[in-house]
Design a protein that fits this description.
The chain is mainly beta. The chain is 6% helix and 54% strand. 36% of the residues are buried. About 7% of the residues have low confidence.
Length: 381
């Protein structure tokens, strides 16, 4: 029996079962309580697990993993009112240790999957440790580790497949491309080539959000170490059409000698019927002569309530990265199809996605495509 055929069949069967069958779960209610004062405290989180199958053209393997476009995490939110104009919010959110992290999955370099491996994460990771003061008319001031002003601005969408596929984001970062002739690993991975050029993620920063005006929001932040960024967002509805847009600029010259600055913009439009479109463009100004890496992506989707369980999201997208890995003539493209079924009764979701990655250089060397299937469940509590 061909092991590759068996694995593909097994993953396909598991994915179809996941999309068809309800999840049996008894989620804990997100508990709210008062501490030693009048602040309200809420605890919540999520568990995110999946089966990841990959084929690099030379070998293939199946991995039982966590992580993806989201991760297993715990959070505590404390809220209080200083006076009628000023409120305060404290947020602690932790990434849990992972027994097997999808971004650490590797098919190895020896062929036939003999070097198959996957790395875990043995330590807790801090996502947010943040205090935010909000004023009714003067905006908000935040201090601590949290979202920088530029974070998430590349990822605006109405797709409904956010637990496994967002426009411009990918999974399977640890898989290396294989030389089509020599069958040896190139040493270049999916994560080296593909990025949505989003902002400075979460970091220790001081952030100020201006008051929102007619759906427009603006923010700036200063990141520990000297980097600075800014971001803008807009949302509105015109009749039966909803629109969202965002843009960001960040300058990292204070902490790196390779990239000077980066900017990106994304936009999405959705009709009340559920049809939607998400677009992305970004560019990095590097110190390499003649190299300005770019990304663009487009994803069409349909997001509607097709059954009694909850919203169903379907999406298909294309992404292109040029001058990737700060190397002139290094390009990558990826095709994605994804589906997500929300289960309102337990606040959770089932999901599956397929991606095909292509990698090219300016030389004569060719590389095999990498195909990845990721299917699983997210349970929120």
């Amino acid at each position: 029996m061909n092991i590759k055929t068996t694995l593909k069949t097994s993953v396909a069967a598991a994915a179809l079962f996941a999309l068809a069958a309800p999840v049996v779960s008894s989620p804990a209610d997100a508990g709210a309580w008062n501490g030693g004062n009048k602040n309200k405290v809420v605890m919540s989180g999520r568990i995110h697990r999946g089966l990841l199958y990959a084929d690099d053209g030379q070998s293939d393997g199946l991995f039982n993993t966590g992580g993806g476009t989201t991760s297993t995490r715990l959070r505590w939110i404390a809220t209080g009112q200083v006076n009628e104009s000023v409120s305060v919010k404290g947020l602690i959110e932790m990434d849990t240790p992972k027994s097997a992290n999808q971004s650490g999955a590797s098919l190895g370099t020896a062929g036939a999957g003999t070097n198959r491996s996957i790395a875990g994460a043995s330590a807790w990771g801090i996502r947010h440790m943040d205090i935010k003061f909000s004023h009714k008319t003067m905006g908000a001031f935040s201090i601590g580790q949290g979202n920088t002003a530029s974070n998430g601005r590349s990822e605006v969408n109405f797709l409904g497949t956010g637990n496994v596929a967002i426009n411009g984001t990918n999974f399977g970062d640890g898989f290396d491309f294989v030389n089509s002739t020599t069958k040896a690993s190139s040493g270049v991975s999916i994560g080296d080539i593909f990025t949505n050029m989003d902002g400075l993620s979460r970091n220790d920063r001081i952030r100020y959000d201006l008051p929102s005006i007619s759906g427009l929001n603006l923010a700036v932040s200063y990141v520990d170490g000297g980097n600075v960024d800014m971001g803008a967002g807009y949302s509105a509805k015109f009749g039966s059409v909803s629109v969202q847009a965002a843009a960001q600029y960040n300058n990292t010259a204070a902490t790196t000698t390779t990239d000077q600055s980066q900017w990106s913009a994304s936009a999405a439009i959705k009709h009340d019927s559920g049809l939607n479109l998400a677009l992305l463009y970004g560019q990095t100004d590097t110190n390499a002569v003649g190299v300005d890496a770019t990304v663009w992506a487009a994803t069409v989707g349909y997001n509607a309530k097709l059954n009694s369980m909850g919203q169903t999201g379907l999406s298909a997208g294309y992404q292109s990265n040029t001058d990737a890995n700060s190397t002139k003539g290094t390009d990558g493209t990826v095709w994605t199809v994804a589906a997500q079924q929300n289960i309102d009764a337990i606040g959770s979701a089932l999901w599956i996605a397929y991606k095909n990655f292509d990698y090219d250089t300016s030389g004569s060397t060719n590389f095999d495509d990498i195909s990845v299937v990721y299917a699983g469940a997210t349970v929120n509590f």
